[in-house]
């Protein structure tokens, strides 16, 4: 039996004392001393892992002031801080062994959007959240990031973030009008550009604010010549302590040039007033393909002369990984192969303007040049994307480059540590040639992408950090990259900040490094704000690469066989795509509903990694334990499991279980995450092992056996319905933790099939058909939930098959096993899935196509059934729309009004079968109708999740984030359709609406023709 796993150490006594004092002083935010919360904040998108002692989530600027004032008391002087925003830093900027200050959970309000072109926001506002609010005003906040759906404004300011389009729009610093910060003594200060008389007034203050302004002004006056001579003239001139821009182009003093990019080493950011700009009304993207990546880099200098807004580049490795991601389906037509060869590099050249003429003139000039000299400069060809939807689809692919690289297979994964160097653009190709040579000499695999117009290229070598020999490459490669970067007049940190790389600050700042030390000392004399980063006061130490604990060092303590079994969790690189702000996106509804990163794929992966590490330290192999459990119930362990469940001793496994219970098992992570972190898969394995020590609730057993029980219960469906609809029945259901349990349909599938003359599919029956008959036959694979709860949908699909000229058969019902998998009954699931797959293989062997009705259940054959041995896996079972798309020529073309329908897809479909949504559109188009797929998130039901009493409130909150708006707006038209059984159930419960399945709508249209 699995032993109890330690809940590890409590926070240090001083941090516990601070937490208690904060609460006494009126701190209104959340205090998170629990080990699980600290583990989730111990990593970012870097290679490092540092366990904080406490995580605090302030609700307001007042909370930041309370924190600063309490911490400034002598008894707490030993506590250090690290502010945290989106937590996606690539260099450990927000990692600390002290106290994490996370503003993303509560301080995320947009405070003002006046008629002028500026906005005031709290530091935790996400960039895409801000731009969504600005869009209705025709404005946007322009610094563009690949992490824009989870990057906070505070984080962008802290790293002076920039990305695509920086040559046109500049960096974050260029758009900060005012910055409200809390200094370490508790002073709230709003910094903005100051005229000389205003500056003199501030300098007369006798507090920390006055001292800082006097020092920085003196630095600008006394060191101006040295500053001008020392800093390279680059678009990405400097991030953090920007001495070159203390005075702006109007001669005003601007402390924000020092604060922007300071990585939380000087003050805590509370609010910002930002400049925003009009959204360009038109855009076009020219996608140029090349025979080599070097050709793409060298040609970029030629393309700059066309006056593009931005020029981005992507190498063949990123393009290849994109082809295996859901993103490729929307962009494949823009990157065709040339004579069977994939492009070895592409340049993406964007033009924007307020009129079509503004973009068409340069695009036409460029297209003419490219067409007339296609073979020169290594060019192979080009395509042009026009309009917001098409252009954004390609930019989405480019934005996923970071994550896509992390999805390379094997233990060696591309990692960030020298990934954002900046050199003058005219030297970029030569610089990268040397960069590649040093990587090639070590036979390393790597991917490259970036902003060629700004001279910034992201380079991520693939290294297995679990291997001590490979870990040493971090130091070797970094040292060589530092030297070639200085050789070409560049910077080691062109975009992603310094963080742990701060050890190289003295080399790049040279004689100006003591100036940085003096600024740090003025703001933070005791070196408590994110110490060791950018600059350290005299006597303080800078962080150094190789001196901090890495995730790889901790992961190598887990046996290789266990790592392999849980690779969906262990390969999470912290890119944070699961922190997406967009409610109309499928990714991780539980995080969106709770804003708690414990309930995100990254959080759950972090907890599983720690759980496995602790088991390894105890000498326990969870896979061996699972194999034993799969042999069947071990009744001899029942007393011990009962005792463990009753005692409820401290056990880190409970914290992991709580996070796993919040997962909807919607599979969005497995498709939307660029690394393909698959929470439902490792969640099921965890639950299996966890319940080897602790008893399962009765509800789990009922849900797990539901598919097997439904045929028998269906025979007395009327009695069952009567019971669960009665007050005692509802009370009994709630007692076992279930609410809104569905009722059996009064429609008898058996009678309806007989009335239609539809036979049960048996292999011998199908084999007896002629070749022509088999070509016009189809087998519908039943699932428990539509067959017994919603047979009208099954019958509509069968009638649709007949209407377009096919003879349908219905496969004998076999439990699919998905409920077993969701709840971790993996032994029972494996047995049920093997039996079902065997039947499906026999039917498929006849050559007749197999089609499933419910998306979630059908996609189980492609996803969860992957755990079966190869020989036991099922054949292809098509979704209804995939089958229709194959036979669109058989769909009768209807005449008359072209009906317009709206579709709400299932989460799993968006993640695992995105192209199938276009199949529905093709089928409707063949019938003379149109179908628009609405942008939407999760409905909140997700199988049984929304029926579980403890999750019902969260389920309803998730529904309200996206689906409620669409249903309210469109359901009355009768044209709103929903694919998933659970989704339609949720709509019925929440809004009393019965949304048709697309097959029902299509059948109705064909019958009416």
TrEMBL record:
<dbReference type="GO" id="GO:0004458">
    <property type="term" value="F:D-lactate dehydrogenase (cytochrome) activity"/>
</dbReference>
<dbReference type="InterPro" id="IPR004113">
    <property type="entry name" value="FAD-bd_oxidored_4_C"/>
</dbReference>
<keyword id="KW-0285">Flavoprotein</keyword>
<dbReference type="InterPro" id="IPR017900">
    <property type="entry name" value="4Fe4S_Fe_S_CS"/>
</dbReference>
<dbReference type="InterPro" id="IPR006094">
    <property type="entry name" value="Oxid_FAD_bind_N"/>
</dbReference>
<dbReference type="InterPro" id="IPR016171">
    <property type="entry name" value="Vanillyl_alc_oxidase_C-sub2"/>
</dbReference>
<dbReference type="GO" id="GO:0046872">
    <property type="term" value="F:metal ion binding"/>
</dbReference>
<dbReference type="InterPro" id="IPR036318">
    <property type="entry name" value="FAD-bd_PCMH-like_sf"/>
</dbReference>
<keyword id="KW-0004">4Fe-4S</keyword>
<dbReference type="InterPro" id="IPR016166">
    <property type="entry name" value="FAD-bd_PCMH"/>
</dbReference>
<keyword id="KW-0411">Iron-sulfur</keyword>
<comment type="similarity">
    <text>In the N-terminal section; belongs to the FAD-binding oxidoreductase/transferase type 4 family.</text>
</comment>
<dbReference type="GO" id="GO:0071949">
    <property type="term" value="F:FAD binding"/>
</dbReference>
<dbReference type="InterPro" id="IPR016169">
    <property type="entry name" value="FAD-bd_PCMH_sub2"/>
</dbReference>
<dbReference type="InterPro" id="IPR017896">
    <property type="entry name" value="4Fe4S_Fe-S-bd"/>
</dbReference>
<dbReference type="Pfam" id="PF13183">
    <property type="entry name" value="Fer4_8"/>
</dbReference>
<keyword id="KW-0479">Metal-binding</keyword>
<protein>
    <recommendedName>
        <fullName>D-2-hydroxyglutarate dehydrogenase</fullName>
        <ecNumber>1.1.99.39</ecNumber>
    </recommendedName>
</protein>
<dbReference type="GO" id="GO:0051990">
    <property type="term" value="F:(R)-2-hydroxyglutarate dehydrogenase activity"/>
</dbReference>
<dbReference type="GO" id="GO:1903457">
    <property type="term" value="P:lactate catabolic process"/>
</dbReference>
<keyword id="KW-0560">Oxidoreductase</keyword>
<keyword id="KW-0274">FAD</keyword>
<dbReference type="Pfam" id="PF02913">
    <property type="entry name" value="FAD-oxidase_C"/>
</dbReference>
<dbReference type="Pfam" id="PF01565">
    <property type="entry name" value="FAD_binding_4"/>
</dbReference>
<dbReference type="GO" id="GO:0008720">
    <property type="term" value="F:D-lactate dehydrogenase (NAD+) activity"/>
</dbReference>
<keyword id="KW-0408">Iron</keyword>
<feature type="domain" description="FAD-binding PCMH-type">
    <location>
        <begin position="48"/>
        <end position="279"/>
    </location>
</feature>
<dbReference type="InterPro" id="IPR016164">
    <property type="entry name" value="FAD-linked_Oxase-like_C"/>
</dbReference>
<dbReference type="GO" id="GO:0051539">
    <property type="term" value="F:4 iron, 4 sulfur cluster binding"/>
</dbReference>
């Amino acid at each position: 039996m699995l032993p109890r796993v330690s809940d590890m150490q409590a926070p240090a006594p001083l941090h516990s004392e601070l937490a208690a004092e904060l609460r006494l002083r009126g701190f209104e935010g959340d205090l998170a001393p629990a080990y699980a919360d600290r583990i989730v904040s111990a990593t970012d998108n870097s290679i490092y892992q540092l366990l904080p002692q406490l995580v605090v989530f302030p609700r307001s600027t007042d909370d930041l002031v309370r924190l600063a004032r309490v911490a400034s008391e002598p008894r707490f002087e030993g506590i250090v801080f690290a502010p945290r925003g989106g937590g996606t830093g690539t260099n450990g900027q927000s990692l600390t062994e002290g106290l994490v200050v996370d503003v993303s959970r509560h301080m995320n309000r947009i405070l003002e959007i006046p008629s002028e072109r500026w906005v005031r926001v709290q530091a935790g506002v996400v960039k895409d959240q801000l731009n969504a609010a600005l869009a209705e005003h025709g404005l946007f906040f322009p610094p563009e990031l690949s992490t824009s759906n989870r990057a906070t404004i505070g984080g962008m300011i802290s790293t002076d973030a920039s990305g695509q389009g920086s040559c046109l729009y500049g960096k974050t610093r260029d758009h900060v009008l005012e910055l409200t910060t809390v200094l370490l003594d508790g002073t709230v200060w709003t910094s903005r550009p100051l005229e000389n008389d205003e500056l003199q007034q501030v300098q007369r203050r006798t507090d920390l604010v006055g001292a800082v302004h006097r020092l920085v002004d003196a630095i600008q006056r006394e060191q101006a010549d040295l500053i001008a001579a020392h800093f390279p003239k680059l678009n990405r001139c400097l991030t953090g302590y920007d001495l070159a821009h203390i005075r702006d182009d109007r001669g005003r003093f601007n402390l924000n040039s020092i604060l922007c990019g300071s990585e939380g080493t000087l003050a805590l950011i509370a609010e910002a007033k930002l400049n925003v700009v009009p959204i360009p009304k038109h855009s076009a993207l020219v996608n140029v393909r090349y025979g080599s990546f070097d050709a793409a880099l060298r040609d970029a200098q030629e393309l700059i002369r066309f006056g593009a807004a931005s020029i981005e580049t992507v190498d063949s490795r990123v393009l290849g990984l994109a082809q295996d991601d859901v993103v490729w389906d929307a962009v494949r037509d823009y990157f065709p192969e040339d004579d069977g060869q994939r492009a070895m590099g592409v340049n993406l050249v964007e033009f924007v303007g307020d009129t079509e003429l503004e973009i068409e003139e340069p695009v036409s000039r460029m297209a003419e040049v490219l067409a007339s000299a296609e073979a020169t400069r290594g060019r192979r060809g080009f395509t042009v994307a026009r309009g917001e939807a098409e252009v954004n689809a390609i930019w989405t692919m480019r934005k996923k480059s970071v994550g896509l690289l992390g999805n390379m297979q094997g233990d060696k994964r591309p990692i960030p540590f020298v990934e954002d160097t900046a050199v003058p653009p005219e030297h970029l190709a030569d610089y990268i040639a040397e960069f590649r040579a040093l990587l090639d000499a070590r036979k390393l695999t790597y991917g490259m992408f970036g902003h060629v117009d700004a001279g910034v290229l992201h380079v991520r070598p693939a290294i297995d950090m679990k291997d001590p020999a490979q870990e040493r490459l971090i130091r070797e490669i970094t040292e060589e990259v530092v030297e070639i970067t200085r050789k070409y007049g560049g910077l080691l940190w062109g975009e992603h900040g310094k963080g742990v790389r701060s050890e190289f600050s003295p080399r790049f700042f040279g004689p100006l490094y003591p100036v940085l030390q003096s600024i740090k000392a003025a703001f933070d004399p005791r070196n408590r704000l994110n110490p060791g980063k950018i600059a350290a006061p005299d006597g303080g130490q800078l962080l150094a690469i190789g001196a901090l604990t890495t995730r790889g060092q901790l992961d190598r303590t887990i046996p290789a066989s266990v790592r392999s079994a849980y690779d969906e969790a262990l390969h999470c690189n912290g890119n944070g795509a699961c922190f997406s702000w967009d409610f109309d996106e499928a990714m991780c509804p539980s995080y969106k509903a709770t804003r708690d990163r414990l309930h995100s794929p990254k959080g759950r992966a972090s907890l599983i990694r720690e759980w496995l590490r602790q088991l390894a330290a105890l000498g326990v192999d969870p896979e061996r334990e699972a194999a034993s459990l799969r042999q069947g119930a071990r009744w001899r362990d029942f007393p011990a499991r009962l005792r463990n469940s009753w005692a409820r001793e401290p056990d880190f496994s409970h914290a992991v279980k709580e996070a796993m219970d919040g997962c909807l098992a919607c599979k969005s992570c497995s498709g939307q995450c660029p690394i393909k972190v698959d929470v439902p898969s490792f969640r099921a394995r965890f639950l299996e092992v966890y319940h080897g020590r602790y008893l399962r609730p009765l509800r789990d057993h009922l849900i797990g056996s539901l598919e097997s029980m439904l045929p028998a219960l269906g025979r007395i469906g009327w009695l069952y319905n009567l019971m669960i609809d009665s007050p005692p029945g509802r009370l009994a259901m709630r007692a076992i933790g279930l609410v809104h349990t569905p009722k059996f349909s009064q429609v008898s599938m058996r009678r309806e099939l007989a009335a239609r003359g539809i036979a049960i599919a048996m292999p011998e029956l199908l084999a007896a058909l002629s070749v022509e008959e088999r070509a016009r036959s189809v087998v519908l694979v039943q699932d428990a939930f539509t067959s017994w709860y919603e047979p009208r949908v099954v019958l509509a699909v069968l009638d649709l098959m007949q209407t377009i000229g096919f003879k349908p058969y219905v496969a004998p019902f076999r439990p699919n096993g998905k409920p077993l998998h969701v709840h971790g009954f993996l032994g029972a699931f494996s047995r049920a899935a093997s039996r079902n797959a065997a039947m499906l293989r026999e039917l498929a062997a006849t050559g007749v196509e197999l089609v499933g009705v419910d998306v979630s259940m059908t996609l189980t054959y492609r996803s969860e059934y992957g755990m079966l041995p190869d020989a036991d896996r099922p054949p292809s079972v098509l979704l209804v729309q995939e089958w229709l798309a194959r036979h669109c020529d058989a769909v009768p073309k209807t005449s008359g009004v072209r009906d317009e329908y709206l579709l709400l897809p299932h989460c799993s479909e968006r993640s695992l079968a995105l192209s199938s949504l276009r199949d529905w559109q093709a089928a409707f188009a063949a019938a003379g109708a149109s179908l628009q797929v609405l942008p939407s998130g999760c409905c909140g039901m997700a199988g049984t999740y929304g029926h579980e009493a403890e999750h019902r409130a969260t389920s309803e909150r998730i529904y309200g984030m996206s689906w409620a708006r669409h249903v309210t707006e469109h359901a009355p038209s009768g044209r709103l359709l929903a694919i998933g059984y659970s989704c339609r159930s949720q709509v019925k419960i929440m809004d009393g609406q019965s949304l048709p399945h697309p097959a029902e709508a299509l059948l109705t249209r064909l019958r009416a023709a």
